[in-house]
């Protein structure tokens, strides 16, 4: 391997910590930063610094926000009887893009994964349960990815929530729009069949 100047190597190391970014991609990103003007590089550094220092978790839903409450929790237009539980803040963005969901959210910041040493106590589970005591919430939607960890987390939360008399639902799993039956795996086909609706 050829010589790389220390500051450049440090930059490559930092970029390669991002998920899905290998050494090659990190090197490309580092050289892109070097090709920026001083003003653009300073703006990038400032944006990173601001995101890190000014954003924190919403007191209620645990999504990232600048204020004490995020815009969704503080909105009078949201349906307060429904909470959609998601793994990450990125999932909130995905639901908001549909413009079809008008309830509130709760961000767990991870999933239960004993293999990775992640238990319920490392997620924002107690904050979720604290929200359910008022009697205002009528339904909690489990909106985790259909993985082993997602299923385990949904089942764990459902066991805690059901005794409170609150309806617990999960997202329907099935065929993607534009998908082909021929290439669909058995589990997805089974779920699509069992979750069928009347036309």
From TrEMBL:
Family to which the UniProt record says this protein belongs: Belongs to the RecR family.
Entries under Pfam families matching the protein: RecR_C, RecR_HhH, RecR_ZnF, Toprim_4
Protein name (database record): Recombination protein RecR
UniProt entry keywords in alphabetical sequence: DNA damage, DNA recombination, DNA repair, Metal-binding, Zinc, Zinc-finger
Keyword DNA damage: yes
Zinc finger (C4-type) boundaries: 58-73
The keyword Glycosyltransferase is assigned to this record: no
NCBIfam families: recR (TIGR00615)
GO biological process: DNA recombination; DNA repair
Toprim domain residues: 81-176
SMART domains, per database record: TOPRIM (SM00493)
Role played: May play a role in DNA repair. It seems to be involved in an RecBC-independent recombinational process of DNA repair. It may act with RecF and RecO.
GO molecular function: DNA binding; zinc ion binding
InterPro entries tied to this protein: DNA_Rcmb_RecR (IPR000093), Rcmb_RecR (IPR023627), Rcmb_RecR_Znf (IPR015967), TOPRIM_dom (IPR006171), TOPRIM_RecR (IPR034137)
């Amino acid at each position: 391997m050829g010589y790389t100047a220390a500051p450049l190597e440090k930059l490559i190391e930092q970029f390669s910590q991002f998920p899905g970014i290998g050494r090659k991609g990190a090197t490309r990103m580092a050289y892109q930063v070097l090709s920026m003007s001083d003003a653009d590089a300073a703006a990038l550094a400032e944006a990173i610094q601001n995101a890190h220092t000014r954003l924190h978790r919403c007191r209620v839903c645990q999504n990232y926000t600048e204020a004490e409450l995020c815009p969704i929790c503080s909105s009078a237009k949201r349906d307060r009887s429904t909470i959609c539980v998601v793994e990450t803040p990125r999932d909130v963005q995905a639901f908001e893009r549909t413009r079809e969901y008008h309830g509130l959210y709760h961000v767990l910041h991870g999933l239960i994964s004993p293999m990775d040493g992640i238990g319920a106590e490392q997620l924002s589970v107690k904050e979720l349960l604290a929200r359910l005591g008022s009697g205002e919430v009528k339904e909690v939607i489990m909106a985790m990815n259909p993985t082993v960890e997602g299923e385990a987390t949904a089942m764990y939360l459902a066991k805690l929530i059901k005794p409170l008399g609150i309806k617990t639902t999960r997202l329907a799993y099935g065929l993607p729009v534009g998908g082909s039956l021929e290439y669909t795996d058995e589990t997805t086909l089974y779920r699509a069949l069992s979750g069928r609706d009347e036309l």
